[in-house]
Each structure stands twice: as structure tokens, then as C-alpha cells.
Amino acid sequence: MRGQLLARARGASRPREGTIGLRNEGGIPEWGGPTKGVEATEGDGLEGGGIPGGHRGALGQDLGHPPATTLDPTGPIPEVLVAAIPSTRVWLATALAPSTVFLLIGIPALVAAFVAGAYPVLPVLGPMVVGAGGAQLKRLTSWMNFEVHGSAEAIRVRHGLTEVRARTVPIARIQAVEVAQPLLWRAFGWWRIQVNVAGVGPEKDAEHDALIPVGTFEEVMRILRVMGPAWSLPEVAQAMHAAVTPAGTVGLPRSARWLDPISWRRRGYAVTDVALVVRDGALTRTAIIVPHARLQAHGADQGPLERRLGLASVRLHSTQGPVKPVVRHLAEADALALVNAQQARGSAARRGEHVLGPRSPGTAHTTTAVHYRPN
């Protein structure tokens, strides 16, 4: 009996070879689960050589079945993958860029000029071809591996082929959103999202820093839904697709066709409880979303031709960025009504801005400036 007690005492003070002897303050082993070379000692309370709890080893080994985990409701909401651009779409969208047409014409012209000995043309045409080719290459490498991740607090973008870039856009700092579709993308249903972010100056390459440079309609709407209820509005989908002024949208009068012979049916605006949605463009279709609480200032102006036709344009001033909200060539009465009503909507929205979420530091708004200049 004495020999057994001494043997057990020696085993407690010095782990036997092949056993796990690391313990915490409660006497429970830090590592867990049945492992090769682990044997239970009498009195440890371990049945079958297993270690209670089944925790992961200190060196990362999976030493057992981990316990079920639950999401902490007080912690941050995990990010989810919202959109990912396949490489085939990047190649095709790059090929459909306007600079591709220039390269198809400019490269043969440059070769023909060199062969024909028209050397004075080379210093003019050569840099133009090189610049267009460089822009295409930059677009291609920048859009590759493009992923958009979203959470309740921010949109995170990661992209790049030769150089991986990452960008975080806090949702509370987004001031205006533009969804645009170039003419050549219409057959494929692709769109681009650009945003104005408070505290961020205008980007040098706004196209390459888009929230998503070439996405489907479903991907665009998923991103807007992640951003919150102030952005994913039914009026946005109408503004994106309707060829003529839809119901509930204030359009342009027929006199505007003298200034907008192609796009006058596509222009107009719709007012919702939380935002102003501006639609524009016949060749490049755009839908701009400006929440009432994010509007910095607004005003109307009228040029000589507009004054003769009884028209006026309303400019909505946002923070610096690629999005320039403006409703062009409205009827004078509609422009004046929008300017006056938007002042009240902006003031009320800023008082109840909880609809858009908490305001981030640095997003203080100026007083809405209303001015009408019929000159």
C-alpha cells in the first residue's frame, strides 16, 4: 500500500511520459480530448483517457470535439460575403470599356503611320495609345478578385491582382450613393456603385475605388440592403430600370426636350420618407440616393435657355466625392416646390436620424441653404 501511495505521489508531481500534465488553477487540464500517448491516471476523474471539455490544444491541435459556441448578442455582428466578381465578368467588362474602341482604332493607325513614314504623327498618337492601354491594364488588375463583405457597421472591399487593396467604408459616414449603368453594360444587366463618404476627399481614381465596379442587379440590391433601409428602396429599382417616368416620380415637362432630346424622359426625382431618389441618363443610366438627413445644402438655378423655356435645375450639395446629385431642367414650379419642401424634410430627418443609425464622428451637417436664382 505504501509503495502504491508513493508511486501515485511521484506521478502527481511529475507527469509520466506520454501524458498531459499542464493544468490551470482549477486543476482541469488545459488541453482536452483523447490523444495518442495520453493515458488517464487513477483519481483524475478521466474516463477512457479523455479530458473533460474537449478544448483545443495550446499549440492549435484539435484534441477533441470543441464545445458548442453561441454568438454573443452584445458583440459585433460578423461580416458576410455580399458579392464577389468572377474573372470572366471582369474580362468582358474591361473589353466593353470605351477605351477599348480607341485601342482597336489607335493601334492599327499607329502601326500604319510608322510603316508609311508619317513620323510626326507618332509623338501625338503614341502617348494616347499608351495611356489608353495603361488605363485598361489598371482596370483589369484592380477589378480582379473583387469581394464585398458587409456587416451592420461597415462595408469592406478587397480587390486586386498584382497589388491587393482593402477599403473599409463605415455605413454611418455614407452621404450619397450613385448606381450607374453604361450603355454597353445594359445587355448584361451590370451596374456600378459609387459613394460619397464623410471625411474622405475625392478619389483620384473613383472608378477603381467604387463600392462595386461591375455588379449584377441582385448584387447591387444586396449591398444596399446591407447598408440599411434608407438605401434599399423600391424607388431605387424603378429609377434604375424604368425607361420612362414611373408613377410617383416627378418628371420633366415636354419643353425640356429642347435641352434633353434623348434623356428628358429618364430624368426626374422621387421623394420617400427617408431619402430623395434622382434618376438621370438615357445612354448611361443613373440612380442617385441622397437621404434627407445627409443633405448638406440645396438650391435652384436657372440659365438663360432654361428661363426662356420655363425650366430650372435643383442642385443637392453632398460631401466631396464622385456623386454629384442634381435634378436638371425641372418645371419652375416643380423646382421651387422641391427646394422649399426639402428644407423641411431635411430638418425633420436630422431630428430623427436614428432611422439611418448612429452618426459617426465627423459627419456633422450644415444648415440647409435654400436659394433660388432666376438669372
Structure description:
By secondary structure, this protein is an alpha+beta fold. Among the domains are: 1-67, no CATH class; 229-356 and 365-375, PH-domain like. Helices cover 29% and strands 22% of the residues. The protein is built from eight helices and 15 strands. It has helices at residues 2-13, 87-95, 98-116, 122-143, 217-227, 234-241, 304-309, 332-351, and strands at 80-84, 147-150, 154-159, 165-170, 174-181, 190-197, 212-216, 250-251, 268-271, 275-280, 285-291, 297-302, 311-317, 326-331, 372-374. The strands form three sheets. Strands 7-6-5-11-10-9-8 form a seven-stranded antiparallel beta sheet, with helices on both faces. Strand 9 and strand 10 (275-280) form a beta hairpin. Helix 2 (87-95) runs antiparallel to helix 4. The longest helix has 22 residues, at 122-143. It is globular. Residues 9-75 and 354-375 have low confidence and may be disordered.
Compose a concise summary of this entry.
By secondary structure, the protein is of the alpha+beta class.
Question: What secondary-structure arrangement, pairings included, does this model have?
Answer:
Layout: H1 2-13, E1 80-84, H2 87-95, H3 98-116, H4 122-143, E2 147-150, E3 154-159, E4 165-170, E5 174-181, E6 190-197, E7 212-216, H5 217-227, H6 234-241, E8 250-251, E9 268-271, E10 275-280, E11 285-291, E12 297-302, H7 304-309, E13 311-317, E14 326-331, H8 332-351, E15 372-374
Parallel strand pairs: 12-15
Antiparallel strand pairs: 1-2, 2-3, 3-4, 5-6, 5-11, 6-7, 8-9, 9-10, 10-11, 12-13, 13-14
Helix pairs in contact: 2-4, 3-4
